[in-house]
Each structure stands twice: as structure tokens, then as C-alpha cells.
């Protein structure tokens, strides 16, 4: 088990959230898929709802503040010790700030950044909220990878902003894929070049005990799922929730 009580090192994916049209339907779907419980926030916080595993926050969902929105995705936030300074670096490296640094009550300080390849992510400087308190175990966040048609632009940007090393992956020689590593050598995710990626996006992969069972649960709960497939690192399923949000789940390969 990986339970966290302090903020993750700078540059590490530390939190994910999702804005959707129907909070009750989302809780039914994600509760059935991951066994999450939910702590619904008050109206003054937009009903920002904590998704709980063993009573600890692993993610959040909320009603989308834009009633006309039709495109939904899990937004990943990267840990930072200084949200303002990281935002300045992001702009200097060619990014933009759809949401400039702002305080979130006593919980922390955040910003939303769009990289020059078009990928969007958040920054999170922890206060009372350190981020996901369970990671890298079933029904919690496992990893995030950026899929973009401009991978070289993205790699240069993230290396400049977070000090990542960009490391080629010898296990996938047929793909334009590189790992991103923190200065201490810890891998935080990767960048996949895909010329057909019309909408650059950070993907979200949740760990599960059984990818095949997760695919069935997703379909039974009103979503859809691809056929499970084996790849070098495990067994993967592409999931689409009832609102069109796409993400992946993964488990160890079946023996």
C-alpha cells in the first residue's frame, strides 16, 4: 500500500479531478468501478466532491461549471513548492495560463497551464490538502502520460519547467515514447508522439486488481470498455465513462 501524508516532490503528479454534467451519475459509475466512497462538498465550493478509498482522498469530481461543455477529461496536477514561480517558468517556456495562480482557501495554491503543444495540466502547491493520499495501488492513480502530435515541443517544455530528464524507452522501439524523470531519477510519466492526436491530452491510468473485471463493471455501470489487451507492462483497458471521459485501467498480466 502507498499512503501519503505529506506533499509529493515537485514535478510529481499529485492530484486529479474531473468536471462532469451529472454528479450523482458520476458517483454511481465511479463507485461501481473503483469502490470509491464520496464526500460531497457544499454549494459554495461548487459541490467539489472528494473520492475516497479507505477514507482517504484519491481524486475529486464536481459538476462542470460550464453547462455547455461537451468534452470532459481527468485533469492532472503536478506538485510544486512554489506555484507562482513554476507558472512564470511555464510562461517563459512558451506555455499559457488559462487560470493564473490562485489560493484555494487553506487547502493550497493552484494554477492551470497549457503547454505549447496544447496539453493542459494543473499545478498544486500543497497546504492543508497534500493531494492524492493513496497512489500506485488498486483503485487509485498509477500514472499519467501525455499524448501529443508535437512531442519534441512538449519534451523541451516540461524539461525546462520541471527539470525533467527525457529518456528514451528501449522497451517500445516502435513508438515515439520517452519517459520523464525528476532530477532524482524518479519516473513521473512520459510523452507519446502521435501524429493523429488532434487534442493533446495528459491521460490517466488507474491501477486495478483485474482489468477484465473492471471492463465488465464499467459496462454494467453505464460506461463502455475496450477489449483488454496485454502489453509489456501489464493488461490494459480503455474505459469511457457515461459522459465520454476516456481513461485507462491496468492490472498485472494474467498468468
Oligomeric state of shown chains? single chain
Give the low-pLDDT segments. Answer: none
Could you say which overall geometry the principal axes of the C-alpha atoms support?
globular
Mean pLDDT: 96
Span of the ends, CA to CA = 23 Å
Major beta sheet summary: 9 strands, mixed
- Output the helix-strand order: EHEEEEHEEEEHEEEEHEEEE
* Percent range for β-strand residues: 35-45%
Helix content: 10-25%
DSSP strand count: 17
Number of helical regions: 4
Structural class: alpha+beta
Kindly describe this structure.
The chain has helices at 23-34, 83-92, 151-162, 211-220, and strands at residues 13-20, 37-39, 49-53, 56-63, 75-79, 96-104, 108-114, 120-126, 140-148, 165-168, 176-181, 187-193, 201-207, 224-225, 229-231, 234-240, 246-251. With 255 residues, it is an alpha+beta fold. Strands 9, 10, 11, 12, 13, 14, 15, 16 and 17 form a nine-stranded mixed β-sheet that branches. An eight-stranded mixed β-sheet has the order 2-3-4-1-5-8-7-6. The longest helix is centred in the first third of the chain and has 12 residues, at 23-34. The chain is globular and about 45 Å long.
Give a short overview.
The protein is α+β, with helices and mostly antiparallel strands and 255 residues long.
Features of the shown structure:
alpha+beta, 17 strands, 255 residues, 8-stranded mixed β-sheet
Question: What's the structural blueprint in terms of helices and strands?
Answer:
Blueprint: E1 13-20, H1 23-34, E2 37-39, E3 49-53, E4 56-63, E5 75-79, H2 83-92, E6 96-104, E7 108-114, E8 120-126, E9 140-148, H3 151-162, E10 165-168, E11 176-181, E12 187-193, E13 201-207, H4 211-220, E14 224-225, E15 229-231, E16 234-240, E17 246-251
Parallel strand pairs: 1-4, 5-8, 9-12, 13-17
Antiparallel strand pairs: 1-5, 2-3, 3-4, 6-7, 7-8, 9-13, 10-11, 11-12, 14-16, 15-16, 16-17
Amino acid at each position: 500500500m502507498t499512503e501519503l501524508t505529506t506533499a509529493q516532490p515537485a514535478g510529481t503528479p499529485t492530484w486529479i479531478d474531473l468536471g462532469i454534467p451529472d454528479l450523482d451519475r458520476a458517483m454511481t459509475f465511479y463507485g461501481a468501478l473503483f469502490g470509491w466512497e464520496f464526500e460531497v462538498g457544499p454549494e459554495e465550493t461548487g459541490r467539489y466532491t472528494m473520492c475516497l478509498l479507505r477514507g482517504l482522498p484519491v481524486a475529486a469530481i464536481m459538476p462542470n461549471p460550464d453547462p455547455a461543455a461537451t468534452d470532459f477529461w481527468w485533469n492532472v496536477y503536478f506538485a510544486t513548492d512554489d506555484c507562482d514561480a513554476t507558472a512564470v517558468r511555464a510562461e517563459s517556456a512558451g506555455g499559457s495560463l488559462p487560470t493564473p495562480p490562485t489560493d484555494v482557501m487553506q487547502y493550497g495554491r493552484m494554477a492551470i497551464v497549457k503547454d505549447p503543444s496544447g496539453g493542459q495540466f494543473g499545478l498544486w502547491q500543497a497546504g492543508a490538502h497534500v493531494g492524492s493520499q493513496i497512489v500506485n495501488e488498486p483503485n487509485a492513480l498509477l500514472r499519467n502520460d501525455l499524448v501529443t502530435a508535437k512531442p519534441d515541443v512538449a519534451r523541451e517544455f516540461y524539461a525546462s519547467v520541471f527539470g525533467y530528464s527525457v529518456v528514451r524507452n528501449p522497451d517500445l522501439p516502435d513508438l515515439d515514447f520517452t519517459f520523464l524523470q525528476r532530477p532524482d531519477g524518479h519516473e513521473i510519466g512520459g510523452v507519446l508522439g502521435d501524429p493523429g492526436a488532434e487534442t493533446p491530452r495528459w491521460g490517466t491510468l488507474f491501477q486495478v486488481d483485474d482489468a477484465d473485471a473492471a471492463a465488465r463493471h464499467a459496462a454494467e455501470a453505464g460506461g463502455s470498455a475496450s477489449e483488454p489487451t496485454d502489453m509489456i507492462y501489464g493488461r490494459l483497458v480503455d474505459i469511457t465513462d457515461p459522459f465520454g471521459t476516456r481513461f485507462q485501467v491496468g492490472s498485472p498480466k494474467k498468468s
